[in-house]
Amino acid sequence: xxxxxxxxxxxxxxxxxxxxxxxxxxxxxxxxxxxxxxxxxxxxxxxxxxxxxxxxxxxxxxxxxxxxxxxxxxxxxxxxxxxxxxxxxxxxxxxxxxxxxxxxxxxxxxxxxxxxxxxxxxxxxxxxxxxxxxxxxxxxxxxxxxxxxxxxxxxxxxxxxxxxxxxxxxxxxxxxxxxxxxxxxxxxxxxxxxxxxxxxxxxxxxxxxxxxxxxxxxxxxxxxxxxxxxxxxxxxxxxxxxxxxxxxxxxxxxxxxxxxxxxxxxxxxxxxxxxxxxxxxxxxxxxxxxxxxxxxxxxx
Amino acid sequence: xxxxxxxxxxxxxxxxxxxxxxxxxxxxxxxxxxxxxxxxxxxxxxxxxxxxxxxxxxxxxxxxxxxxxxxxxxxxxxxxxxxxxxxxxxxxxxxxxxxxxxxxxxxxxxxxxxxxxxxxxxxxxxxxxxxxxxxxxxxxxxxxxxxxxxxxxxxxxxxxxxxxxxxxxxxxxxxxxxxxxxxxxxxxxxxxxxxxxxxxxxxxxxxxxxxxxxxxxxx
Lengths: 300, 219
Ligand code: SF4
Ligand code: SF4
Fold this sequence. Notes:
The complex is a heterodimer of chains A (about 300) and B (about 220). With about 300 residues, chain A is α/β, with parallel strands linked by helices.
């Protein structure tokens, strides 16, 4: 197996609402030949609201500092598992590289701390690394405990592939409207990916956090189709999708009279269980608001 | 270059549109919008917007600055980037809406400043700049209480079951906020960045219309 060291930017959710994504990735990625070197003293990327209160240059400076810190690690890839972190870091990286004005502004700000950055790292989503550098054969080779019979709705969400399914080195790692990578991940574990047209629908993102009354109908459709398709669990790569789709099921039931109670897990937790790893220590399956019983039942 | 956006004085005054083309992130490509409606048709929350992105862009061309900067379109966008990847003219719709939102807040429109997003963004930025990390507890608490004590308490209580669940599953901690180590360095960088940002918005003539202002279809 080819070994690879990447700079790892976990993002703020790794410390709180999506700690189970971070835990399970740190457990499974070394098995897939990817070693993490955590970006030194990383900070928040500004998510999808930072521009409103902070403005453009401060927003770019946030990602600029992370990228500058990673650059000193000597790796060539800046890898993150969070959709919003990916979007912001990727966007800023391209701007710093291709737009002289932005490059100068960010470097003027970084300069007060003796830092600089030129846009030379590749910002990559960890799922793209799994698709392009690891490959499904290497994933399958680790499966000791196939999740046979588990029905999974693969819910990608929006920002993981939009707009940056286009990679920095050219080419697309998947498509915008009908990406297949998550179903490939699910199948590799031995589970069954149910047909699921809502795979790239938006969960409302931060608007769902601040004003759920505006967006609950979006989540209703996402959970509703998974239920209709008989999914045991929903699996997602996105930290905010996991939280929104899981935590609002009670509110949906109250508002719409539905009877939703579908666990929402990360693909990396499915990997950990399929790799025969510890359901708690490695898969962090105890950290769900809706207990992930169908997955736990298959853990070794 | 960048200063407060000009307020049109008559119908189909192109000055606001020109300002947007030049000063809003992605605005240069907005000039290529051909009004096909793919963006609005792809929008999951188009039904809840005062105007979909297509119409909003036409309103910018028509000089309807007030209506544009007061519209809830800027706040109801969920940043799903559906419009961006589907636009046949490669107009970066989401970025334009984000930036118009920033303009609306900067120029002091009450509808903008009092929007949920602006309140949330303020709380969020406070945490990101102070600690270098988002503390989800403090951000939501600050956001809830930005509506006042009574409403803050009400919203807090309504979300209590979720918060308790998060604490129980160790996805929300009790105790000091998470922070990055060198918050002093981050503050210095952000202060400098804010200074550069302010520099680019300085030197404008407020909301005054640039001299002449005769460019328009109704000449
Ligand atoms: S999809 Fe693009 S070209 Fe079509 S109306 Fe929207 S912004 Fe204009
Ligand atoms: S990014 Fe905003 S405007 Fe564009 S489709 Fe999504 S919600 Fe609609």
